[in-house]
Amino acid sequence: MTGAGAVGNNLLLQYCFSPGRLERKRRINSSISIWRSTFFQPQASSKSHQLPLSTEYYGKRLTVKKHILRMGKQRAVTRSPRAVLATDPASQQLVEKFNLDGNVELQVEVSNPTSGYVAVVNIQVTSSGDNFVLHWGAVKSQNKTWILPQRRPAGTMVYQNQALRSPFVKSGSNAVLKLEIDDPSIQAVEFLIFDESQNKWYKNNGGNIRVKLPARESRTKSVSVPEDLVAIQAYLRWERKGKPAYTPEQEKDEYEAARLELIEEIARGSSTEDLRTKLTSKNDISESEEKIVSGKKSNIPDDLVQIQAYVRWEKAGKPNYSAEQQLREFEEARKELQVELDKGSSPEDIQKKIVKGEIKTQVARQLAKKKFFMVERIQRKKRDVMQLLTKFSSEPEVQKASSEPQILSAVQQFAREKENHIADSVLSKTTYKLADKELLVLVANLSGKTKVYLATDLPESTVLHWALSERPGQWTAPPSSVLPADSVSLSKAAETKFSTNSVDNQPYKVQLLEIAIDDEKFVGMPFVLFSDGKWINNSGSDFYIDFRAESKKVEKDAGDGRGTSKALLGKIAKLESEAQKSFMHRFNIAADLMEEATNAGELGLAAILVWMRFMATRQLVWNKNYNVKPREISKAQDRLTDLLQKVYRIHPQYREISRMIMSTVGRGGEGDVGQRIRDEILVLQRNNECKGGMMEEWHQKLHNNTSPDDVVICQALIDYIKSDFDISIYWKTLNDNGITKERLLGYDRGIHSEPNFRRDQKDGLLRDLQNYLRTLKAVHSGADLEAAIANCMGYRAEGEGFMVGVKINPVPGLPSGFQELLQFILVNIEEKNVEALLEGLLEAREELRPMLSQSNERLRDLIFLDIALDSAVRTAVERGYEELSNASPEKIMYFISLVVENLALSVDNNEDLIYCLKGWNLALSMLKSSDDHWALFAKSVLDRTRLALAGKAESFHQLLQPSAEYLGALLGVDQGAVDIFTEEIIRGGSAASLSSLLNRLDPILRQTAHLGSWQVISPIEAIGYVVVVDELLSVQNKSFSKPTILVAKSVRGEEEIPDGAVAVLTPDMPDVLSHVSVRARNSKVCFATCFDPNILADIQAKEGKLLLLKPSSADVVYSEMQEDDLESPADTKIVSSAPLVALVRKQFAGRYAIRSEEFTSDMVGAKSRNIAHLKVKVPSWINVPTSVALPFGVFETVLSDHLNEVVATKLQVLKTRLGGGDFSALGEIRNTVLELSAPPQLVKELKDVMQLSDMPWPGDEGSQRWEQAWLAIKKVWASKWNERAYFSTRKVKLDHDYLCMAVLVQEIINADYAFVIHTTNPSSGDSSEIYAEVVKGLGETLVGAYPGRALSFICKKNDLNSPQVLGYPSKPVGLFIKRSMIFRSDSNGEDLEGYAGAGLYDSVPMDEEEEVTLDYSSDPLIVDKNFRHTILSSIAQAGSTVEGIYGSAQDVEGVVKDGKIYIVQTRPQM
User: Fold this and answer.
1) In sequence order, which ranges of 1091-1140 are alpha helices (DSSP H)?
2) What pLDDT digit, counting tens, does each position of 1099-1122 carry?
3) 1401 secondary structure, DSSP code
4) Among 478, 546, 963, 1046, fewest CB within 10 Å belongs to which?
5) Percent of the chain topping pLDDT 70
6) Active-site positions?
7) Alpha carbon distance 515, 493 (integer Å)
8) Angle between helices 762-780 and 785-793 (to 10 degrees)
9) Which runs of E-coded beta strand occur in 1357-1443?
10) What pLDDT digit, counting tens, does each position of 1358-1378 carry?
11) Closest CA to 914 of 283, 366, 1414, 185
């Protein structure tokens, strides 16, 4: 697509040119304006980017400017603002003074011209302000509409084609400005004054300030000036003003202003010859211009010269001529016509020859991309970026599609948890509906056994009546070896009772049963259920589970459809054979399915998107032995896209996915455009005498079944002709767009031949193919920019057999100036320097955005335009990489801000992206103001933006990839295409461009902020073999036999360090004080983040090799080693050791609850004791929340209570299974603990203790609140069986049964900020330095698995008032909570010397935290230096105080609320 291509030029010419002024019949007809003045062609005057003024006020007396296009491309112009100082001539007369607003005075003086016609208006504002702008226009006679004089102060800008804005110049305490009005017909000037610094308008009693001008005599009637001199003077004025773009009205005004200036010169005594000598001797008037002046004396009418010049311009390829070159072109055109005149032709004869193309021209075709002017800029409006916010909560429809309600049932929750444990072993999963209840059957292959898991939520006790089958359907009594406990064996069956279990967060219970079959001779399992005195079967038949590999393989290949709209995808697969007939069939089938897809929610629409994208990427058959008319395809497209626009309008939460579907489907044509594909290929062949060979084969293909391939074929032909018939270019265009020779041959009407044209066909073919390309794009290319603009702006074609009679009306209600903005985009679409283009594209999308959320009969066209603009941003950014090669950080950051803005305009739920955009804007502001922290802050915004991109990619993957895999398997789509389905969608959007820009900026910021390539979290020297893994989580329970350096792409923050790992290196960014970081330091494991992808890639490339790591506090030096270099073989082996630590079983002391004064080592853990100790030791400015506790032994006592006999029995069975190595029992144990009932004595004692400690008792707010508190207590106890905690104790051979859990109860402080302090810097080991991290909201985002980094700082203990920020926060979310209670784990397994037990167990708030997306650009901790200094200093002082109390390095957790410091726990730093 080219800016000067046929579609773009036809559109612009027909939209911008004055019609009916030329006679030529070919394509000139309405495409040329009369070039009465050849001077006014657009040139840039400045590259400066001027932000717009406030748009709060719009003048009422404004006119709309219309642009005109001549040779070359037109652009809007921005000038660097400056103003001239007002003079004080003696002729001035005081007109009036105004008191505008208290301290602001306005004085206006108007000269009474003693000679000539120029009136001078001097305006002076007296105020302390220094940034005033005059918003003004002029008035003629009784017309109240503002006109825009052409004589303007320097720096004046046109505001929305309706007013002028001229900047004042500061002069002492005054701001001054001079206006010169040279048009005698102007009777008054009207204006307002705008103070940019205060965003304030100054008016005259609420209205415009009007200044009448003295009457001036018009001298145009008495003095005559030769027209050629007027033309030269007009050119000189235009050149002085920076060669702006003029409307026809402005041209006329400018021409008359030039005439008046010359009349003024004559009035002062100059002769005509004096003027001619003066004008023609100027250096910037070329010799060619003088020839034009003399040439105008010929007898050739100007309109014929203009037409001939247009013919030359068109034959030259419509290049962008400078003004001087245009003058030369006119002279050459005049010479060519003069030759005909000298031969005896009359002007009428010449006109006929021009129309027939018989005038001989000598013109070389210009390079299409050649530019003769500088890139100009549009003015972007100032907007509140929060207006871009789109935020939708998840709706039930999304879950409907996956056959799961929004809230998972107990059965579904059990299924999800079980599948998470045995995901790779699952063979099949079936859910049966039992009226309003469910039966789940899950089959897995574990350790060579077939395991069947059954679960139901039937309320009554249920028995399984079952058998095994050696042949399908056969009932054979199961052997005793496979019977679960308490089963009853019958003659041909067995009966087994389900057991009852609770599931997390479910008020009701689920019945479970597990059966293991180790004999491969059995191929299936028939069964029925007996419950509540009734037999339950499968709709009159037995239930049957098939174990056979054959049946499993088919199901496994397609998957089970989890996370998809499975029913809809199955229906699509069944209809694919019909859809393959033609695009008409496919689009009509998709339209028929739209209602079902919409009702299924986001997953239903995802099914349609996956199907349409498989089609668009040619993974599915486009046409199969079916002849369909193009207009029928167009009609089907029209129907489908109409339904999609309705979804877009009615369901705003599905706008993003609706756009994605529309981008894969063509627009469809209006005005019977589809049929014209058939008709116009005949016109093209007839016009150019190319009815055989490749063109005839293509013609037959088009008649049989047109497709998007035809757009590519047409473009390939155009490129082939433009390259002077280089056939390799033809094939390159085809191959670059996925069309091979085999594909051409594979059409129902195959294309076997290569194009072969005569040279004399070149011009006609180019003309007609470019027109035909427009027709093809109108049907197939909804996201094509030129076609999308044409559909919105409107067009009407009447020429030479292409689109004849097609009339598209403009979309009503487009924003003012929008047409000019789109024209600017088309003109600049191939500019190498893309910054101005990106601004234009973004401005167009911003202007368009309000219309996309409103009802509009042409909404579809607006959506396609927005899609096309979005796509153009990506293309422009990729083309602009070269521009950024040696660019400043400011320029790269500005580019990034534009692309982030574009992404925010394209996606739903864009809150995080908007805060990233605000962060980039703040970083740019900090850079411009020379803030020392700009690079450090920009790095945090960069990290957050990367997280946002990763989150978006993950959401796409979760939404689309399961559907792609399931439908791909059903349809036999190439597995490679399925595997990269989501990845290719992401790559095709601006997110991929943004990622590349971030990669370019990252090393610059790290260098500027002196961050280096590493952040060392645990500086331990290590030797080991390199092993590369995707996630640390995936190997946390593994034991490595050799010392291992793990390179993990993902580290969340709460994983375990596996046995045998001596180092963990990652590009991820866990907090230095996260659980995994603390455990790495405690375990003496090297742990570091590598920011440089090249370094990381080099280490990954050494997988399997032995490396030596030597970390310092800020760097890691690594080198390859040979095993021979080691001191002894023992260095490469992991040696088992005896337990380093031991647990002492704690006994119940007879108390269910105790006050903090009673905390002892026999009753509670170190966490509780430390907080009680601090409570009485810290100074008054440090606050410690009141605490009580449920001491050691309470859990065991509650479990042994008669209320919980059944629970105790179940728990003992599960613990036996766990001891036997069945780790899936861990989750069941946790669920069983949640079934515990609270003894009345526990409730009473806890209530009494809390009330004595002045803590609120949850039960006072109702029984439900106590149940919430009791559930939280049980979850703390249950966390003893967390996977990471259990495996951690096994690793160091701790007796897990000896682990006792007290529960520390505290009132939650609804924190503004949370912090963790290590009073010895953990990265360097420097005991003179405090290290701390701070997050917004609660501390769980700091110590838990929440992505992003906290604000980090260090502070010397001998200067606690001078904190030094090391990094700004990048965490996208914060946690906040209302007044509530928190129940903290406090086990005897934490804080043991030599064992990193801290953080393994859960602390559970009684109420759920609210997750809030954070805006750091308005956070005082970021933007207020004094506030930041105060808070960080207070945190450092608190850490130093706590360390002083204990006399050793401490790990301190706390919060900040309303500027006050609270310490919530402390422990020895390990």
Assistant:
1) 1093-1100
2) 999 999 999 998 877 788 898 888
3) S
4) 546
5) 81
6) 1075
7) 14
8) 70
9) 1364-1367, 1373-1376, 1381-1387, 1404-1405, 1410-1413
10) 999 999 999 999 999 999 988
11) 1414
